[in-house]
Amino acid sequence: MTTNEQKFLEYARKGDTSCLLKILSSIAEAERVRLALARDVQKETSLHYACRFGDLKLIKFLTDSGADLNARNGKLGTPLHCAVSHGHLPAVRHLLECEVEIDQKDNSGVNFFAVLKTQKVD
Fold first, then answer.
1. What are the residue boundaries of the structural domains of the chain, listed by start?
2. Engineered SS bond to 15: which of 4, 25, 49, 53, CB 3.0-4.6 Å?
3. What ranges cover the ANK repeats (predicted)?
4. Is 2 exposed, middle or buried (0-12, 13-18, 19+ CB in 10 A)?
5. pLDDT at 119 over 80
6. Average pLDDT over residues 88-96
7. What is the rounded average pLDDT of the residues 51-77?
8. Taking a C-beta distance cutoff of 8 angstroms, is the pair 91, 83 a contact?
């Protein structure tokens, strides 16, 4: 992983949307795609983090920049799992509009629908 990818994912992990959007809007498309696809040691992408925080503006920018909508982290969770498990309905709605795979199960055997049944969403 490059230093730029590490910094980008650190901003994502901290939920620093302003820095992330500033970076993404100032670089070429190929670099945006590369950063959107970068993974940390837990196999998390910036989209996983954005979905965990429910940051719809960043989620839309990442999905428009070529982020892997169905990326699986170290626990086999997808960005959709992150959004629904943290109760972020607008993020869930956007991902569904982007036609994410809804039947993927995490390492506990849980899919999106099972998580949705147990969560209070905003």
1. 3-118
2. 53
3. 42-74, 75-107
4. exposed
5. no
6. 96
7. 95
8. yes
CB 57 within 8 A of CB 20: no
Q: Distance between CA 36 and CA 38 in Å, rounded?
A: 6
Would you state the pLDDT for residue 111?
85
* Eight-class DSSP state of 113: H
Q: Please say if the pLDDT value at position 114 is more than 90.
A: no
Instruction: Give exposure, 21-48, as e/b (b: 16+ Cβ within 10 Å).
Output: bebbeeeeeeebebbbbbbbeeebbbbb
Greatest Cα-to-Cα distance within the chain, rounded to the nearest angstrom: 41
pLDDT at 58: 95
Of residues 50 and 118, more confidently modeled: 50
Cβ atoms of 45 and 79 within 8 Å: the answer is yes
Please state whether 109 falls in left (phi above 0), alpha (psi between -120 and 50) or beta.
Answer: left
